[in-house]
User: What shape does this take?
Amino acid sequence: MSYRILLLGEGAREHAIAEAISRSVHKVKLYALSSHVNPGIRDCCKRTGGELIVGDFLNPDKVVEVARNIGADLVVVGPEEPLFRGVTNAVEEKLGVPCIGPRREAAQIEQSKAFLRELMWKYKIPGRLRFRTFRDVAEALEYIKETGESVAIKPARQVGGKGVKIVADIQAYLRDVRTEVKIEHVKRIYSELSRYSDIEHRILIEEKVEGPEYTLQCFTDGQNVMPLPLVQDYKHAFELGIGPETGGMGSIMDKGWVLPFITQEEYERSVEIVRRIVQAVREETGTEYRGIIAGQMMLTTIWGPTVIECYSRFGDPEGVNVLSVLETDIVDIFEAVLSKALPKIKIERKPVAVVVKAVAPAGYPLNKRLAQGHILEIDKEKIESKGCKLYFGSVHEEEGVLKTAGSRAVEIAGFGDNIPEAAEKVNSVLGCVRLRDWKVLYRLDIGSEESLRKIIMQAELIRQVYRARLSRELKIYDWIPGKGLRVIEY
Assistant: This one.
Protein backbone atom coordinates (compact mmCIF):
# COMPACT_ATOMS: atom_id res chain seq x y z
CA MET A 1 0.00 0.00 0.00
CA SER A 2 1.25 3.52 -0.78
CA TYR A 3 1.08 6.40 1.68
CA ARG A 4 1.46 10.12 1.66
CA ILE A 5 2.51 10.91 5.22
CA LEU A 6 2.68 14.40 6.72
CA LEU A 7 5.04 14.75 9.69
CA LEU A 8 4.70 17.74 12.03
CA GLY A 9 7.74 19.10 13.88
CA GLU A 10 11.32 20.20 13.40
CA GLY A 11 13.64 18.72 16.05
CA ALA A 12 15.91 15.71 16.49
CA ARG A 13 12.96 13.57 17.58
CA GLU A 14 11.17 14.39 14.32
CA HIS A 15 14.39 13.72 12.35
CA ALA A 16 14.47 10.25 13.96
CA ILE A 17 10.79 9.67 13.09
CA ALA A 18 11.40 10.85 9.52
CA GLU A 19 14.38 8.50 9.18
CA ALA A 20 12.33 5.56 10.46
CA ILE A 21 9.53 6.34 7.99
CA SER A 22 12.00 6.68 5.11
CA ARG A 23 13.32 3.16 5.89
CA SER A 24 9.85 1.64 5.39
CA VAL A 25 9.40 -1.08 2.78
CA HIS A 26 6.05 0.50 1.94
CA LYS A 27 5.76 2.96 -0.90
CA VAL A 28 5.83 6.18 1.12
CA LYS A 29 6.06 9.83 0.16
CA LEU A 30 7.05 11.75 3.26
CA TYR A 31 6.20 15.42 3.71
CA ALA A 32 7.05 17.55 6.74
CA LEU A 33 5.63 20.80 8.04
CA SER A 34 8.23 22.72 10.05
CA SER A 35 8.77 26.35 11.01
CA HIS A 36 12.31 26.22 9.60
CA VAL A 37 14.45 23.96 7.42
CA ASN A 38 15.83 21.05 9.42
CA PRO A 39 18.28 19.51 6.91
CA GLY A 40 17.92 16.00 8.28
CA ILE A 41 14.13 15.98 7.94
CA ARG A 42 14.36 17.64 4.53
CA ASP A 43 16.73 14.97 3.24
CA CYS A 44 14.48 12.16 4.50
CA CYS A 45 11.55 13.75 2.65
CA LYS A 46 13.59 14.08 -0.55
CA ARG A 47 14.63 10.41 -0.45
CA THR A 48 10.97 9.39 -0.58
CA GLY A 49 9.96 11.90 -3.26
CA GLY A 50 8.28 14.24 -0.77
CA GLU A 51 9.31 17.65 0.53
CA LEU A 52 9.70 19.81 3.61
CA ILE A 53 7.20 22.69 3.78
CA VAL A 54 7.95 25.70 5.96
CA GLY A 55 4.92 26.83 7.95
CA ASP A 56 3.20 26.99 11.32
CA PHE A 57 2.66 23.38 12.39
CA LEU A 58 1.02 24.57 15.63
CA ASN A 59 -1.90 26.09 13.69
CA PRO A 60 -4.68 23.52 13.08
CA ASP A 61 -5.96 25.41 10.03
CA LYS A 62 -2.49 25.47 8.46
CA VAL A 63 -2.01 21.77 9.07
CA VAL A 64 -5.40 21.01 7.51
CA GLU A 65 -4.49 23.16 4.49
CA VAL A 66 -1.15 21.42 3.92
CA ALA A 67 -2.60 17.95 4.50
CA ARG A 68 -5.32 18.70 1.94
CA ASN A 69 -2.88 20.11 -0.62
CA ILE A 70 -0.56 17.09 -0.55
CA GLY A 71 -3.39 14.56 -0.34
CA ALA A 72 -2.17 13.17 2.98
CA ASP A 73 -3.26 9.66 3.96
CA LEU A 74 -1.81 9.99 7.46
CA VAL A 75 -0.55 12.76 9.75
CA VAL A 76 2.13 11.99 12.34
CA VAL A 77 2.46 14.54 15.14
CA GLY A 78 5.97 14.84 16.61
CA PRO A 79 5.87 17.36 19.50
CA GLU A 80 3.18 17.91 22.13
CA GLU A 81 2.05 21.48 21.50
CA PRO A 82 0.11 20.74 18.26
CA LEU A 83 -1.80 18.08 20.19
CA PHE A 84 -2.73 20.59 22.89
CA ARG A 85 -4.05 22.96 20.21
CA GLY A 86 -6.30 20.33 18.66
CA VAL A 87 -4.44 19.60 15.44
CA THR A 88 -5.51 15.95 15.52
CA ASN A 89 -9.15 16.93 16.09
CA ALA A 90 -9.06 19.37 13.16
CA VAL A 91 -7.41 16.98 10.69
CA GLU A 92 -9.67 14.05 11.53
CA GLU A 93 -12.89 16.07 11.63
CA LYS A 94 -12.32 18.32 8.58
CA LEU A 95 -10.48 15.89 6.30
CA GLY A 96 -11.23 12.45 7.70
CA VAL A 97 -7.48 11.79 7.71
CA PRO A 98 -6.22 9.71 10.66
CA CYS A 99 -3.43 10.91 12.93
CA ILE A 100 -0.75 9.22 14.95
CA GLY A 101 -1.11 11.48 17.97
CA PRO A 102 -4.02 11.67 20.43
CA ARG A 103 -6.93 14.07 20.21
CA ARG A 104 -6.84 17.12 22.46
CA GLU A 105 -9.10 15.51 25.07
CA ALA A 106 -6.69 12.60 25.51
CA ALA A 107 -3.53 14.74 25.29
CA GLN A 108 -4.63 16.36 28.57
CA ILE A 109 -2.57 13.71 30.34
CA GLU A 110 0.49 15.74 29.34
CA GLN A 111 -0.95 19.21 28.93
CA SER A 112 -2.39 19.29 32.45
CA LYS A 113 -0.50 17.66 35.29
CA ALA A 114 -3.59 18.30 37.41
CA PHE A 115 -5.73 16.25 35.01
CA LEU A 116 -3.28 13.34 35.16
CA ARG A 117 -3.03 13.38 38.95
CA GLU A 118 -6.80 13.57 39.40
CA LEU A 119 -7.31 10.78 36.86
CA MET A 120 -4.90 8.47 38.64
CA TRP A 121 -6.53 9.02 42.02
CA LYS A 122 -10.07 8.67 40.68
CA TYR A 123 -9.30 5.35 39.00
CA LYS A 124 -6.95 4.19 41.78
CA ILE A 125 -4.03 3.64 39.45
CA PRO A 126 -0.83 2.55 41.24
CA GLY A 127 2.19 4.82 41.21
CA ARG A 128 0.32 8.02 42.12
CA LEU A 129 1.55 10.86 44.32
CA ARG A 130 -0.23 13.05 46.86
CA PHE A 131 -0.82 16.49 45.38
CA ARG A 132 -2.66 19.78 45.58
CA THR A 133 -3.52 22.08 42.66
CA PHE A 134 -4.18 25.81 42.75
CA ARG A 135 -5.94 28.19 40.38
CA ASP A 136 -4.64 31.40 41.95
CA VAL A 137 -1.37 32.37 43.53
CA ALA A 138 -2.84 33.54 46.88
CA GLU A 139 -4.28 30.11 47.65
CA ALA A 140 -0.98 28.41 46.78
CA LEU A 141 1.02 30.83 48.91
CA GLU A 142 -1.25 30.24 51.90
CA TYR A 143 -0.72 26.49 51.58
CA ILE A 144 3.06 26.91 51.28
CA LYS A 145 3.20 29.01 54.46
CA GLU A 146 1.18 26.50 56.48
CA THR A 147 2.79 23.25 55.44
CA GLY A 148 6.30 22.23 56.41
CA GLU A 149 6.46 19.28 54.04
CA SER A 150 9.19 18.51 51.57
CA VAL A 151 7.48 19.20 48.25
CA ALA A 152 7.90 19.47 44.49
CA ILE A 153 6.48 22.70 43.07
CA LYS A 154 5.58 22.48 39.39
CA PRO A 155 3.72 24.33 36.65
CA ALA A 156 0.36 22.58 36.29
CA ARG A 157 0.81 22.76 32.50
CA GLN A 158 3.48 21.19 30.32
CA VAL A 159 6.07 23.87 29.55
CA GLY A 160 8.81 21.86 27.88
CA GLY A 161 9.81 19.75 30.89
CA LYS A 162 11.09 22.72 32.90
CA GLY A 163 9.99 24.84 35.85
CA VAL A 164 10.17 22.22 38.62
CA LYS A 165 11.53 23.15 42.04
CA ILE A 166 12.06 20.50 44.73
CA VAL A 167 12.50 21.74 48.31
CA ALA A 168 13.30 19.39 51.19
CA ASP A 169 12.28 20.43 54.71
CA ILE A 170 14.92 18.77 56.88
CA GLN A 171 16.83 21.28 59.02
CA ALA A 172 14.32 23.16 61.17
CA TYR A 173 16.50 26.25 61.49
CA LEU A 174 16.33 26.77 57.71
CA ARG A 175 12.57 26.51 57.46
CA ASP A 176 11.98 30.24 56.98
CA VAL A 177 14.55 30.37 54.18
CA ARG A 178 13.03 27.37 52.45
CA THR A 179 9.55 28.86 52.74
CA GLU A 180 10.79 32.00 50.98
CA VAL A 181 12.27 29.87 48.20
CA LYS A 182 8.95 28.07 47.79
CA ILE A 183 7.01 31.36 47.73
CA GLU A 184 9.27 32.91 45.10
CA HIS A 185 9.03 29.85 42.88
CA VAL A 186 5.23 29.75 43.15
CA LYS A 187 5.10 33.40 42.08
CA ARG A 188 7.47 32.72 39.17
CA ILE A 189 5.41 29.78 37.91
CA TYR A 190 2.17 31.73 38.15
CA SER A 191 3.68 34.62 36.21
CA GLU A 192 5.08 32.35 33.47
CA LEU A 193 1.78 30.49 33.04
CA SER A 194 -0.22 33.71 32.69
CA ARG A 195 0.32 33.50 28.90
CA TYR A 196 -1.61 30.21 28.70
CA SER A 197 -5.40 30.33 28.57
CA ASP A 198 -5.97 26.61 27.92
CA ILE A 199 -5.70 25.36 31.52
CA GLU A 200 -7.71 25.90 34.69
CA HIS A 201 -5.12 25.07 37.35
CA ARG A 202 -1.80 26.92 37.39
CA ILE A 203 0.30 25.46 40.18
CA LEU A 204 0.85 21.85 41.26
CA ILE A 205 2.39 21.03 44.64
CA GLU A 206 3.05 17.37 45.28
CA GLU A 207 4.98 15.21 47.70
CA LYS A 208 8.73 15.08 47.20
CA VAL A 209 10.06 11.70 46.15
CA GLU A 210 13.54 10.56 45.25
CA GLY A 211 14.90 7.79 43.08
CA PRO A 212 16.19 6.94 39.62
CA GLU A 213 13.96 8.12 36.78
CA TYR A 214 13.24 6.25 33.57
CA THR A 215 10.92 6.61 30.60
CA LEU A 216 8.56 3.94 29.28
CA GLN A 217 7.41 4.81 25.75
CA CYS A 218 4.54 2.86 24.21
CA PHE A 219 2.42 2.71 21.11
CA THR A 220 -1.31 2.41 21.81
CA ASP A 221 -4.43 1.99 19.72
CA GLY A 222 -6.71 2.99 22.60
CA GLN A 223 -7.34 -0.63 23.56
CA ASN A 224 -3.90 -2.22 23.51
CA VAL A 225 -0.51 -0.96 24.67
CA MET A 226 2.75 -1.99 23.02
CA PRO A 227 5.70 -1.14 25.30
CA LEU A 228 9.16 -0.24 24.03
CA PRO A 229 12.54 -0.62 25.76
CA LEU A 230 13.17 1.58 28.80
CA VAL A 231 15.22 4.75 28.40
CA GLN A 232 16.68 7.10 31.01
CA ASP A 233 16.82 10.83 30.27
CA TYR A 234 19.35 13.25 31.80
CA LYS A 235 17.63 16.60 32.29
CA HIS A 236 20.19 18.85 33.95
CA ALA A 237 22.47 21.03 31.86
CA PHE A 238 25.78 20.24 33.55
CA GLU A 239 27.71 17.16 34.58
CA LEU A 240 26.91 15.39 37.87
CA GLY A 241 23.24 16.33 37.42
CA ILE A 242 23.56 19.98 38.40
CA GLY A 243 22.47 23.21 36.76
CA PRO A 244 19.13 24.25 35.24
CA GLU A 245 16.73 21.69 33.82
CA THR A 246 16.69 21.31 30.06
CA GLY A 247 14.57 19.42 27.56
CA GLY A 248 17.17 16.64 27.94
CA MET A 249 20.95 16.63 27.47
CA GLY A 250 21.12 12.93 26.72
CA SER A 251 19.64 9.50 27.36
CA ILE A 252 20.64 5.86 27.71
CA MET A 253 19.09 2.55 26.63
CA ASP A 254 20.50 -0.93 27.24
CA LYS A 255 20.66 -3.73 24.66
CA GLY A 256 17.64 -5.47 26.20
CA TRP A 257 14.28 -4.09 27.31
CA VAL A 258 15.12 -2.95 30.82
CA LEU A 259 17.81 -0.69 32.27
CA PRO A 260 20.60 -1.98 34.54
CA PHE A 261 18.83 -0.59 37.61
CA ILE A 262 15.25 -1.72 36.81
CA THR A 263 14.02 -5.30 37.21
CA GLN A 264 11.76 -7.15 34.78
CA GLU A 265 9.03 -7.11 37.43
CA GLU A 266 9.30 -3.31 37.75
CA TYR A 267 9.17 -3.00 33.97
CA GLU A 268 5.98 -5.06 33.82
CA ARG A 269 4.41 -3.03 36.63
CA SER A 270 5.28 0.16 34.77
CA VAL A 271 3.62 -1.18 31.63
CA GLU A 272 0.49 -2.02 33.61
CA ILE A 273 0.37 1.51 35.02
CA VAL A 274 0.51 3.02 31.52
CA ARG A 275 -2.12 0.54 30.30
CA ARG A 276 -4.47 1.59 33.09
CA ILE A 277 -3.91 5.28 32.30
CA VAL A 278 -4.95 4.63 28.68
CA GLN A 279 -8.10 2.84 29.90
CA ALA A 280 -8.88 5.64 32.35
CA VAL A 281 -8.54 8.28 29.60
CA ARG A 282 -11.10 6.39 27.50
CA GLU A 283 -13.53 6.09 30.42
CA GLU A 284 -13.08 9.68 31.56
CA THR A 285 -13.16 11.48 28.18
CA GLY A 286 -14.97 9.06 25.87
CA THR A 287 -11.96 9.40 23.55
CA GLU A 288 -9.69 6.55 22.58
CA TYR A 289 -6.04 7.38 22.97
CA ARG A 290 -4.28 6.67 19.66
CA GLY A 291 -0.58 7.19 19.10
CA ILE A 292 2.36 7.29 21.50
CA ILE A 293 2.13 7.53 25.27
CA ALA A 294 5.11 7.68 27.61
CA GLY A 295 5.29 7.35 31.35
CA GLN A 296 8.04 9.43 32.93
CA MET A 297 8.59 7.13 35.90
CA MET A 298 10.63 7.10 39.09
CA LEU A 299 11.50 4.20 41.35
CA THR A 300 10.36 5.40 44.80
CA THR A 301 10.10 4.04 48.32
CA ILE A 302 6.31 4.49 48.22
CA TRP A 303 5.26 2.47 45.18
CA GLY A 304 8.37 1.29 43.43
CA PRO A 305 7.39 2.36 39.88
CA THR A 306 5.79 5.81 40.28
CA VAL A 307 4.44 8.26 37.70
CA ILE A 308 6.14 11.66 37.68
CA GLU A 309 4.39 12.79 34.48
CA CYS A 310 3.12 11.47 31.15
CA TYR A 311 4.03 12.41 27.59
CA SER A 312 1.56 12.27 24.72
CA ARG A 313 4.41 11.70 22.22
CA PHE A 314 7.93 10.31 22.01
CA GLY A 315 10.39 11.87 24.40
CA ASP A 316 13.25 13.95 23.09
CA PRO A 317 15.93 12.62 23.21
CA GLU A 318 14.40 9.32 24.46
CA GLY A 319 12.62 8.73 21.15
CA VAL A 320 15.93 8.87 19.31
CA ASN A 321 17.29 5.95 21.36
CA VAL A 322 14.47 3.65 20.32
CA LEU A 323 13.90 4.85 16.76
CA SER A 324 17.58 4.71 15.82
CA VAL A 325 17.61 0.90 16.26
CA LEU A 326 13.97 0.04 15.48
CA GLU A 327 13.83 -2.82 12.97
CA THR A 328 10.07 -3.30 12.85
CA ASP A 329 8.66 -1.22 10.01
CA ILE A 330 7.20 1.89 11.66
CA VAL A 331 4.51 2.19 8.97
CA ASP A 332 3.33 -1.32 9.90
CA ILE A 333 3.08 -0.10 13.50
CA PHE A 334 1.10 2.96 12.40
CA GLU A 335 -1.28 0.70 10.46
CA ALA A 336 -1.75 -1.50 13.54
CA VAL A 337 -2.48 1.55 15.71
CA LEU A 338 -5.18 2.72 13.29
CA SER A 339 -6.77 -0.72 12.92
CA LYS A 340 -6.49 -1.71 16.60
CA ALA A 341 -4.24 -4.60 15.66
CA LEU A 342 -1.21 -3.89 17.85
CA PRO A 343 -1.15 -7.41 19.37
CA LYS A 344 -0.30 -8.74 15.89
CA ILE A 345 2.87 -6.63 15.74
CA LYS A 346 6.17 -7.75 17.25
CA ILE A 347 8.69 -5.05 18.06
CA GLU A 348 12.15 -5.92 16.79
CA ARG A 349 15.25 -3.87 17.52
CA LYS A 350 18.99 -4.15 17.00
CA PRO A 351 20.49 -5.78 20.14
CA VAL A 352 22.79 -2.92 21.05
CA ALA A 353 22.96 -0.34 23.82
CA VAL A 354 22.24 3.22 22.65
CA VAL A 355 23.48 6.44 24.22
CA VAL A 356 22.27 9.78 22.84
CA LYS A 357 23.95 13.09 23.72
CA ALA A 358 22.82 16.58 22.81
CA VAL A 359 25.11 19.42 21.77
CA ALA A 360 23.66 22.86 22.48
CA PRO A 361 24.95 26.41 22.04
CA ALA A 362 26.08 28.15 25.24
CA GLY A 363 23.21 30.13 26.70
CA TYR A 364 20.79 27.23 26.47
CA PRO A 365 18.46 26.70 28.31
CA LEU A 366 18.18 29.98 30.25
CA ASN A 367 18.99 32.45 27.48
CA LYS A 368 17.89 31.07 24.12
CA ARG A 369 18.33 34.46 22.47
CA LEU A 370 22.03 34.27 23.30
CA ALA A 371 22.11 30.78 21.81
CA GLN A 372 20.57 31.77 18.46
CA GLY A 373 22.11 32.63 15.12
CA HIS A 374 25.52 30.96 15.44
CA ILE A 375 27.04 29.20 12.43
CA LEU A 376 27.31 25.45 12.96
CA GLU A 377 30.18 23.36 11.58
CA ILE A 378 29.86 19.56 11.64
CA ASP A 379 32.28 16.82 10.58
CA LYS A 380 29.51 14.38 9.67
CA GLU A 381 31.87 11.94 7.95
CA LYS A 382 33.96 11.47 11.09
CA ILE A 383 30.84 11.01 13.24
CA GLU A 384 29.59 8.28 10.91
CA SER A 385 33.05 6.69 10.61
CA LYS A 386 32.92 6.04 14.36
CA GLY A 387 29.62 4.21 13.94
CA CYS A 388 27.49 7.03 15.34
CA LYS A 389 24.36 8.69 13.92
CA LEU A 390 23.73 12.43 13.72
CA TYR A 391 20.25 13.91 14.23
CA PHE A 392 19.59 17.58 13.57
CA GLY A 393 17.65 19.44 16.24
CA SER A 394 17.20 23.17 16.72
CA VAL A 395 19.03 24.32 13.59
CA HIS A 396 17.92 25.88 10.35
CA GLU A 397 19.63 25.96 7.00
CA GLU A 398 19.94 29.14 4.98
CA GLU A 399 21.63 28.90 1.56
CA GLY A 400 23.66 25.91 2.66
CA VAL A 401 24.71 27.46 5.98
CA LEU A 402 23.56 25.88 9.26
CA LYS A 403 22.61 28.24 12.10
CA THR A 404 21.51 27.54 15.65
CA ALA A 405 17.88 28.28 16.54
CA GLY A 406 18.39 28.55 20.31
CA SER A 407 17.85 25.06 21.69
CA ARG A 408 19.72 21.73 21.43
CA ALA A 409 21.40 21.93 18.02
CA VAL A 410 22.09 18.25 17.33
CA GLU A 411 21.81 14.87 19.02
CA ILE A 412 24.35 12.11 18.41
CA ALA A 413 23.54 8.43 18.96
CA GLY A 414 26.28 5.94 19.75
CA PHE A 415 25.97 2.15 19.87
CA GLY A 416 27.79 -0.58 21.77
CA ASP A 417 27.60 -3.91 23.59
CA ASN A 418 26.89 -1.99 26.79
CA ILE A 419 25.97 1.53 27.86
CA PRO A 420 29.48 2.77 28.84
CA GLU A 421 30.88 1.54 25.51
CA ALA A 422 28.16 3.38 23.59
CA ALA A 423 28.76 6.50 25.70
CA GLU A 424 32.49 6.49 24.93
CA LYS A 425 31.76 6.30 21.21
CA VAL A 426 29.59 9.41 21.42
CA ASN A 427 32.16 11.21 23.58
CA SER A 428 34.80 10.57 20.93
CA VAL A 429 32.86 12.56 18.31
CA LEU A 430 31.29 15.38 20.33
CA GLY A 431 34.17 17.61 19.24
CA CYS A 432 33.00 17.16 15.63
CA VAL A 433 30.23 19.67 16.33
CA ARG A 434 31.50 23.24 16.59
CA LEU A 435 30.21 26.79 16.42
CA ARG A 436 32.29 29.23 14.42
CA ASP A 437 32.02 32.08 16.94
CA TRP A 438 30.59 30.50 20.10
CA LYS A 439 30.92 27.74 22.65
CA VAL A 440 28.93 24.53 22.81
CA LEU A 441 27.48 22.66 25.79
CA TYR A 442 27.38 18.88 26.25
CA ARG A 443 27.78 16.26 28.99
CA LEU A 444 30.54 13.66 29.03
CA ASP A 445 29.25 11.84 32.13
CA ILE A 446 26.01 10.51 30.65
CA GLY A 447 26.19 6.71 30.47
CA SER A 448 29.53 6.43 32.28
CA GLU A 449 30.34 3.43 34.46
CA GLU A 450 30.50 5.67 37.52
CA SER A 451 27.07 7.21 36.92
CA LEU A 452 25.53 3.77 36.36
CA ARG A 453 27.13 2.39 39.52
CA LYS A 454 25.59 5.17 41.62
CA ILE A 455 22.14 4.70 40.08
CA ILE A 456 22.23 0.93 40.60
CA MET A 457 23.14 1.39 44.28
CA GLN A 458 20.38 3.97 44.77
CA ALA A 459 17.81 1.72 43.08
CA GLU A 460 18.70 -1.27 45.24
CA LEU A 461 18.27 0.72 48.48
CA ILE A 462 14.91 2.04 47.31
CA ARG A 463 13.84 -1.44 46.21
CA GLN A 464 14.44 -2.84 49.69
CA VAL A 465 12.32 -0.10 51.26
CA TYR A 466 9.31 -0.21 48.92
CA ARG A 467 9.18 -4.01 48.97
CA ALA A 468 9.21 -4.00 52.77
CA ARG A 469 6.46 -1.36 52.90
CA LEU A 470 4.24 -3.25 50.46
CA SER A 471 4.74 -6.60 52.20
CA ARG A 472 3.80 -5.12 55.59
CA GLU A 473 0.93 -3.03 54.20
CA LEU A 474 2.16 0.05 56.07
CA LYS A 475 -0.24 2.99 56.13
CA ILE A 476 0.64 6.43 54.80
CA TYR A 477 -0.78 9.59 56.34
CA ASP A 478 -1.43 13.00 54.85
CA TRP A 479 -1.76 16.27 56.73
CA ILE A 480 -4.15 18.89 55.37
CA PRO A 481 -3.87 22.41 56.85
CA GLY A 482 -6.95 23.17 58.90
CA LYS A 483 -8.22 19.56 58.73
CA GLY A 484 -5.50 17.46 60.30
CA LEU A 485 -4.33 13.92 59.50
CA ARG A 486 -5.97 11.45 57.16
CA VAL A 487 -5.01 7.95 56.05
CA ILE A 488 -4.11 7.67 52.38
CA GLU A 489 -5.67 4.63 50.71
CA TYR A 490 -3.12 3.25 48.30
